Amino acid sequence: MLSINLGPLALPLGQALLLIAFILALVVGAVVGRKNRIPVAGPLSDIFLATIVAARIGFVIRYFEHYQNDLLGIIDIRDGGFSMLAGLVGAVAVLGWKLWRHPAIRRPLGSAAAAGLLTWGTLSLLINLMESQARGVPDSPLAHLDSRQTTLPHIAEGKPMVVNLWATWCPPCIREMPVLENAQQEHPDIAFVFVNQGEQPETIEQFLTQYNLALDNVLTDVRATMGTTTGSHALPTTLFYDAEGRQVNAHLGELSAASLAHNLERLD
Questions:
Q1: For residue 257, what pLDDT band results from cuts at 50, 70 and 90?
Q2: In a domain, 136, yes or no
Q3: Which long-range contacts (CB under 8 A, 24 or more apart) does 9-16 make?
């Protein structure tokens, strides 16, 4: 499972877990602080915001070379670029400062923060353990644009592989295509595969011509079975497999050069 559906909105699993942990922290803080009428929603919101900002800053610093020519991309968090370690450091720093400056809220705020952190850590660990057990390359039947049948294992041929699920009507898919095209040229040792979801070859070929894209391994999945097989409920979705065919990461949403570089590191 790569995402959680909230009505028409598909929320990436990592962000959904963080939101669940924050909500639980609010509940615990309200319960513990109710007796002495000590609200902690404000301080918890400050900690949550500090976590997001610190995680983004940490990620941008690490991959700044990819933002040098696109400084506005630094604040475009749609690429999902966050550093978990930097976020934790930011959260602990703000939490410690608030506990030191405001002794009256130490018990409810400390309890709320502990509950949120424990929830996030436990759920993340359980999901990673479950998903690390044999998430291999799907063997779903696919086809080249000339109707030749193929499968992802046949395309990979023992190399690491990046599988992009996309469609021509999807704006984020269109925006990230040049990033993937450049990466395909820069990493010939990795098989990049572009699996279109639900469209006909004629539509795909027209799209490639319109945007002047030179992509290898453009495949059709007319019945859009890959989304169901991989647990993807939204486009674009990009899956990363190592040379042994094990899925090592997945990214829901638009990729930037920085977030793609971060995910490709997992293939080494």
A1: very high
A2: no
A3: 10/233, 10/234, 10/252, 12/80, 12/252, 12/253, 13/127, 13/252, 14/80, 14/124
